[in-house]
Amino acid sequence: MGVILKEVMSEQRTDLVLVGAGIMSATLAAMMKEVAPETTLEILEMLPEAAEESSNAWNNAGTGHAALCELNYTPEGPDGRITIDRALKVNTQFDLSRQFWAHMVRKGAMGAPESFIHDVPHISFVWGDDNVAFLRKRYEAMSAHHCFAGMEYSEDPAVLEQWMPLIMEGRDRNQRVAGTRMLTGTDVDYGAVTRGLLQHLSAQPGVAVQYSHQVTDLKRRWDGWLVTVKNLQSGKTREIVAKTVFLGAGGGALTLLQKSGIEEGKGFGGFPVSGIFLRCDDQAVVDRHLAKVYGKASVGAPPMSVPHLDTRYVDGKRSLLFGPYAGFSTKFLKYGSLADLFASVKTDNIGPLLAVGRDNFDLTKYLIGQVLESKDAKYAALRDYFPEANPDDWQFIVAGQRVQVIMPDKKSGGKLQFGTEVVSAADGSLAAVLGASPGASVAVAVMLDVMGRLYKSEFSGWAGTLKELIPSYGQSIADDAALCQAVRNDTAEALHLAKQPAVVGA
Ligand SMILES: Cc1cc2nc3c(=O)[nH]c(=O)nc-3n(C[C@H](O)[C@H](O)[C@H](O)COP(=O)(O)OP(=O)(O)OC[C@H]3O[C@@H](n4cnc5c(N)ncnc54)[C@H](O)[C@@H]3O)c2cc1C
Q1: For the chain, which residues make up each domain, given as ranges?
Q2: Axis-axis angle for helices 85-106, 190-202 (nearest 10)
Q3: Measured between alpha carbons, how far is residue 376 from residues 135, 321, 351, 385, 390 in Å?
Q4: I need a labelling partner for 364 at 20 to 30 A (CA). Which of 86, 115, 160, 183 fits?
Q5: How far is CA 320 from CA 278, 282, 323, 391, 421, in A?
Q6: Backbone region of residue 221 per phi and psi (left: phi > 0; alpha: psi in -120 to 50; beta: other values)
Q7: Which ligand 1 atom sits closest to the C-alpha of 251?
Q8: Are strands 317-327 and 308-314 parallel, antiparallel or unpaired?
Q9: Ligand 1 atom 33: the closest Cα is on which residue?
């Protein structure tokens, strides 16, 4: 009895353990300290620094996904109609992130906005009759909504050349082309956002951020979770008792969700997709392109593989990025293990995994094609967008690893999910974020969802504070033009961004 008591007393206890120091954990921790400052929390990261996996600036594309240029958010139905619902959702979720960042900047809890966000026009660009017809219809559907006020459309090569000279120079003049442009698009360094929030958090009472600490196991107890963590520098293992656990472990979240054994995580699997970008730092080239230009995906390509030529601002320097080229690797994290995929196959998810394999032949074919693609073929893809590109100006870089969610589906047995998925225990003691795109851009919306699941009884009482952090909280920017205008102008001022064009009816 005496020994048991001693063990219990020597346990470390905390209210909340967050696994991973990427944008998701940093956002949740920062929001929690705003709404419930008395919360004690510990962030455990296995790498020596924050934001070294998907949230690192060069591991993702840095697009402030607001559905301004990504054509996959506006599918065309069999009747030829364009649906903008998903675009509206992503668009207004990004507003929540902007509002939270604006609050943190004003409070002095994040660095200067220029350290993480910049105006970069978002352009959709297509060629060929069918694609041009699609883009025109999409423009008509979107520009009618106040959330997309200011969207421009052109089929005139001279106008498009002004918008994006590198893309138009050297292009076949007989090719039919079209583009839409939103000047209010952004480029975001999510690594800088993460580091900024963590720096602020480290100075808060009741917060511990531990690097080179890997969570190796999770066990449910009567009073929460027993989290086993290994210090990768000393090799020592310790246990923490946490009332609540958040798995913000990116590609590592599925493995930990499986270790937790929660019923709600049963049947989930992951399909890893690796990525390569081309990067150009030659300032003579870089200075001639100021936009994120998104095209149309090829047949079978997963939505996140849509090619795009982007301006990036990272560490005070402007560069260009093109890609991503998808690939296949069995790792779940860039710094993970090749055994990750095989270790994730369990009796409860083998059915969904096989169903997805059976139903996604186009994707498999596409990925095999990408893996086998030569360097010359990769440069040819770049030249589809930038006809006069010189390969000598570009270098290949390895992007972050995405683990697309495979989830059980009653009808088909299993389905592949391309968005961000929150899985949580019914008792509200654990939540995990799986998946990727639109990912980092909508971190605040995703964390509001997580907070509602983890703090069921407290959440409604936080509404007043949440309204201070996110002034539109509880209202709909999509339904209220005046609110949309006011919120966007306010966040533009705080984040030093372009103002929202006037909205009719606002
Ligand atoms: C190629 C690519 C392009 C993308 N482009 C965009 C974009 O343009 N815009 C956008 O909004 N989003 C984009 N995303 C998605 C976005 O990057 C992710 O959604 C987001 O970064 C995920 O953040 P996270 O905190 O969940 O994960 P991560 O940033 O990956 O952080 C997870 C952390 O958990 C740690 N970890 C894992 N397991 C353990 C463990 N057992 N113990 C301790 N620590 C652990 C990891 O080391 C890592 O640091 C892109 C992603 C990729 C891969």
Answers
A1: 270-418
A2: 40
A3: 30, 17, 39, 15, 12
A4: 86
A5: 8, 9, 10, 13, 30
A6: beta
A7: 30
A8: antiparallel
A9: 20
Query: Tens digits of per-residue pLDDT, 245-304?
Result: 999 999 999 999 999 999 999 999 998 888 899 999 999 999 999 999 999 876 666 666
Q: Is 128 within 8 Å of 172 (Cβ atoms)?
A: no
User: What angle do helix axes 190-202 and 23-35 make, rounded to 10 degrees?
Assistant: 40
The amino acid sitting at 298 is: S
Is the CB of residue 90 less than 8 Å from the CB of residue 60?
Answer: no
Q: 22 C-alpha vs ligand 1 centroid, how far in Å? A: 6
Pocket of ligand 1 (CB under 6 A): 19-25, 44-47, 51-55, 59-63, 65, 190, 214-215, 248-250, 252, 256, 275, 324, 333, 399-400, 402, 433, 436-441
Q: Give the Cα separation of 386 and 291 in Å (integer).
A: 13
Scored b (16 or more CB within 10 A) or e, 51-65 reads bbbbbbbbbbbbbbb
Show the 3-state SS of 250-285. HHHHHHHHHHHCCHHHCCCEEEEEEEEEEEECCHHH
- Point out the least confidently predicted range of 327-341, 379-393, 454-468, 478-492: 327-341
Residue 375: C-alpha distances to residues 171, 200, 223 (Å): 22, 43, 55
